[in-house]
Specification:
It is a single chain. The protein is α+β, with helices and mostly antiparallel strands and 300 residues long. It has nine helices and twelve strands. An eight-stranded mixed beta sheet has the order 1-2-3-4-5-12-6-11. A hairpin with a 4-residue loop joins strand 9 and strand 10. Helix 3 crosses helix 4, helix 5 packs across helix 7 and helix 6 crosses helix 7. The longest helix is centred in the middle third of the chain and has 16 residues. The radius of gyration is 20 Å and the shape is elongated.
Length: 300
């Protein structure tokens, strides 16, 4: 590795990142995105875009993404290489830490070429200390899918008090099937998990007033749903049902309400995601007309 040069790019050097072609099987390239196009929209800061060069040739590259006001990156988006050892060294050297989100097409395990590209990236990141957190289904609703019928069993109201929202998160997180929630609860406790969820929703640029608490006709709390918009598109930020109300299919009601809300706001598409292991929520998305459009493996 003595001949390996690892550095971030200057603002006028972003073209160097594209001197190594992106994969069209995994990652952003598998879904028609290009680094050049995303960088032109201002989505990447030069100091968060790194390459490993050997004799002037890029043999590994990585680009971290964050919101416009973020002090640290939110995710590792692009990670490609022709030299796995150099790629691992790149991740070890760069002073940035964020979740690596590897985008994959549905059914990726059944395609040997796609599976091979996924596995070599996971192996290189793992060698640098990244640990697989789990795999997620990602969904994309469009008007062609049709609006999911509302059930009219619940009343939805905004709740401006963050203290109330935090208490709802604490209740919803009991018995949660979400991998990230379980990890945070195990490491730092349920209060930290609730705060983490609130911080994530607060990070969204969409109005705080879009969030809704759901109650039965008797006034009993059912849960919380957060239609949102991130820095790219409308999305379902959160769907959660308190433990005592589970088993009645209320997650569908919450998801349907959020979808109608975002459609009324003019959304031409709504994205969403859940862990593959969260079978009840995965089935809820399908019932509401959200097709799976990609898988994603998260490494932390």
């Amino acid at each position: 590795m003595n001949d390996l040069l690892i550095r971030h790019l200057a603002e006028d050097e972003l073209h160097l990142f594209d001197s190594m072609p992106a994969s069209t099987l995994v990652g952003f390239g598998a879904f028609g995105d290009t680094f050049a196009g995303m960088a032109a929209r201002g989505e990447y800061r030069p100091e968060w875009v790194w390459v490993a060069l050997r004799e002037g040739t890029v043999v590994a590259r990585a680009a971290w993404w964050g919101g416009p006001d973020d002090k640290q990156p939110a995710s590792l988006d692009w990670f490609d290489f022709t030299d796995a050892g150099a790629a691992t060294e790149l991740l070890r050297t760069v002073p940035l830490r964020a979740q690596y989100m590897l985008k994959l097409p549905p059914g990726w395990r059944e395609d040997p070429a796609v599976r091979a590209e996924a596995e070599v990236r996971i192996a290189a990141a793992s060698a640098a200390g990244y640990v697989e957190q789990g795999e997620r289904n990602h969904y994309r609703w469009t008007p062609d899918c049709g609006l999911p019928p509302r059930q009219d069993r619940l009343t939805f109201t905004p709740e401006p008090d963050d203290a109330v929202i935090l208490e709802v998160f604490r209740r919803v997180h009991l018995g949660s099937l979400d991998t990230q929630v379980l990890r945070t609860v195990e490491e730092s406790g349920i209060d930290a998990a609730a705060q983490e969820q609130l911080d994530y929703l607060r990070w969204m640029p969409s109005p705080r007033s879009w969030w809704r608490l759901a109650h039965t006709s008797d006034g009993e709390l059912v849960g919380l749903v957060a239609p949102c918009r991130n820095y790219a598109a409308p999305l379902i930020g959160y769907v959660g049902v308190v433990p005592e109300q589970r088993g009645h299919g209320y997650a569908y009601d919450l998801l349907a309400e959020a979808t109608h809300f975002l459609a009324a706001e003019g959304a031409e598409a709504v994205t969403a995601g859940t862990d593959r292991s969260n079978i009840p929520m995965a089935e809820t998305f399908l019932r509401a007309g959200y097709p799976v459009t990609q898988h994603r493996i998260d490494l932390v």
